[in-house]
Amino acid sequence: MWIEKLAHGVLELDTPIGPRYLQPNLRERVLLLWTFRNFSSLPQEVLRTNERRLIDRLWNESRFISRSVADTNELPVIGKVERRAMATTETMPKRKPPASSGVPLAEEGRQAISA
Question: Do 14 and 77 touch, CB atoms closer than 8 A?
Fold first, then answer.
């Protein structure tokens, strides 16, 4: 199976509009086979910088392949990259300090010591 992936494998990208498939060259397929040697699917966040750059370069070069063509349905998938949307952080309003009991902390400490 890995010989078929090495010879004709494609990379699957999980996108909001559905899966997209990229056709890497032989050298890139070797690198991707090593990346996906233990997993069939990986989130983009766990990939190393050079692996992310490779995927971004394939994306920008528009090396997409259509899996709807009869010949490409049998192409082996090297791995699947889960492109999750970046989590947005919500800023919370600043909390008000707790209401004081009217006695400063220094005086409370003195009262406790004298008791």
Answer: no
